[in-house]
Design the sequence.
């Protein structure tokens, strides 16, 4: 499916899941195409806001951002208020100035762990980029080049540990596969998939 207008309309039609907002998670392994897909889906949603979890993770803390996400984003959105979060600068290795996130009808959360246990009660839908870990990581390493090889070694170990303890795919409402042109959407493995909220 190259045209995402149909899926976007179905997402807009969901019941709100976080105050007035329909939070939609785009999860999957690093290198699986989450960022590109989320950008295209956001455009189909009329430029929906996208929170990228790379802005919350840090060099020393890949997956321990849950409290910051709850306090800076989930709680304000649940009250219908504009959220503000401090994005991490991976070059300067420090948090930058706050960035606003408006309580739009649909807000996308994109990144590894977007469908984690602590977030699922706030989600209207969990979308999983259905590309195996080894293939995803291979794509990511190729994209980033040999200069980031050591980073990828640490990342893949951390990602394996995260998904081992808190897997997202079994709870996905929808599995997304990237095609040569567009995307294929399939029902996810979550029991009673499609009935969330």
Sequence:
């Amino acid at each position: 499916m190259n045209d995402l207008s149909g899926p976007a309309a179905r997402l807009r039609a969901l019941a709100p899941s976080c105050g007035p907002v329909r939070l939609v998670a785009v999860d999957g392994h690093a290198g699986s195409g989450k960022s590109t897909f989320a950008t295209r889906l956001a455009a189909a949603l009329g430029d929906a806001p996208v929170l990228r979890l790379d802005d919350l993770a840090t060099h020393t803390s890949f997956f321990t951002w849950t409290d910051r996400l709850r306090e800076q984003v989930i709680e304000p959105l649940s009250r219908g208020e504009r959220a503000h979060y401090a994005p991490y600068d991976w070059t300067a290795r420090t948090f930058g100035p706050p960035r606003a996130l408006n309580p739009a009808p649909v807000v996308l959360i994109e990144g590894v762990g977007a469908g984690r246990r602590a977030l699922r009660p706030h989600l209207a839908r969990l979308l999983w980029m259905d590309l195996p870990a080894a293939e995803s990581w291979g794509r990511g390493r190729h994209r980033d080049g040999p200069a980031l090889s050591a980073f990828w070694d640490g990342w893949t170990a951390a990602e394996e540990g995260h998904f081992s303890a808190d897997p997202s795919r079994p709870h996905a409402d929808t599995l997304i596969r990237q095609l040569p042109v567009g995307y294929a959407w399939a029902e996810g493995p979550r029991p009673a998939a499609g009935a969330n909220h």
